Amino acid sequence: MQTELGGRSGYLHFIRFPTSEMMSFVELAKSKNFSKLASQICATGGGAYKFNNLLRKEVNLDLHRLDELDCLIKGVHYIDSQNGYPECYYYRNAHEQDTCEKTAFDFKDPYPYLIVNIGSGVSVLAVYSPDNYKRIGGTSLGGGTFLGLCCLLTGCSTFEEAIELATQGNSTVIDKLVKDIYGGDYERFNLAGDTVASSFGKMAYSDKREQASKADLAKATLVTITNNIGSIAMMSAKQEKIQRVVFVGNFLRVNTMSMRLLAYAMEFWSKGELKALFLEHEGYFGAVGSLLEYVRNTHLLDAQ
After folding, report:
1. Helix or strand or coil: residue 46?
2. Which tens digits make up the pLDDT trace of 124-133?
3. Cβ contacts of residue 230 below 8 Å, gap of 6+?
4. Distance in angstroms (rounded) separating the CA atoms of residues 222 and 216
5. Is residue 250 within 8 Å of residue 283, measured between CB atoms?
6. How many angstroms separate the CA atoms of 114 and 233, rounded?
7. What is the pTM of this model?
């Protein structure tokens, strides 16, 4: 992404690696003599605390630790303002395979909105202005839960492998639906027959367990975690009387299934009052917010 920052013009390049591969980053930092290029690295999130001593010892660098949520919100608005292409989008007809369409959304005046940050767990923030926000809830059932359960149930070892399995699966083999209980729709409460009534409910029966494949288990796990996140987001939005809900975080990487599930669920259960929004650079906003803070601090020091 081309931008101007700290009096310099250039491109921001985005790369990612799992924290399980931190030693590979350490070896890269040592081989490139990072300690001669800078005295510290700005960082946010749990890893900024967990790996600080390691980097100080192995690379002779300190991590300048910044607040995760501050950096997240600053990064979102900076990238949206600088990206030459629409950063924010939503899905039209999210439940229809043939007519589903990714559509740009104007995010220039978004307030108020919810931001649902889906990492290992989930945090929900209500944002009223660039400097006025609060954490209003969350859940421990997030992307880490999805990957952990998939590793246990299917033997996969990476997030990408779990998502690939899920794309091949059929969650209705695993989940008990409304029609499995009522024989069809539950019309009194407008519940369609294919609505999930009990996640993993069919796994109580031995014959159903024998029919379940690893892909089915991965898909059902994805649907279970995603539906739970959607329910929490919707209740939070109603509590705060907010209509825009922005979903971000590495859980959504290479995970169109969950984005479409969230989009459909939010619109359907709110009767069209709530809209699920997504961002192109999910997973990078905290890093960009850290960079902005580094540039700001550098200018303050130069001005003294």
Report:
1. coil
2. 999 999 889 9
3. 261, 262, 265, 266, 269, 276
4. 10
5. yes
6. 8
7. 0.88
Which token pair is 33?
């003599």
Q: What's the alpha-carbon Rg for the chain, to the nearest Å? A: 21
Residue with tokens 């027959």: 193
Query: In whole angstroms, what is the distance from residue 149 CA to residue 137 CA?
Result: 23
DSSP secondary-structure letter at 215?
Answer: H
Q: What is the DSSP letter of 273?
A: S
- Helix, strand, coil fractions of the chain, as percent rounded to 5: 50, 20, 30
Catalytic residue among 21, 58, 68, 282: 68
Rounded distance between C-alpha atoms, residue 142 and residue 222, angstroms = 10
Structure tokens at 198: 């009990």
d(CA 215, CA 163): 9
* pLDDT at residue 304 greater than cutoff 80: no
- Residue identified by tokens 């246990």 is 152
**From the centroid of its chain, how far is CA 229?**
10
The yes-or-no answer on residue 210 being catalytic is no
Of 108, 102, 135, 42, the C-alpha closest to 280 is 102
Q: Are the C-beta atoms of residues 185 and 194 closer than 8 Å to each other?
A: no
Reported as a single tens digit per residue, the pLDDT across 223-276 is: 999 999 999 999 999 999 999 999 999 899 889 999 999 998 888 888 888 889
Instruction: State the greatest distance between any 2 C-alpha atoms of the chain, in Å, as a whole number.
Output: 74
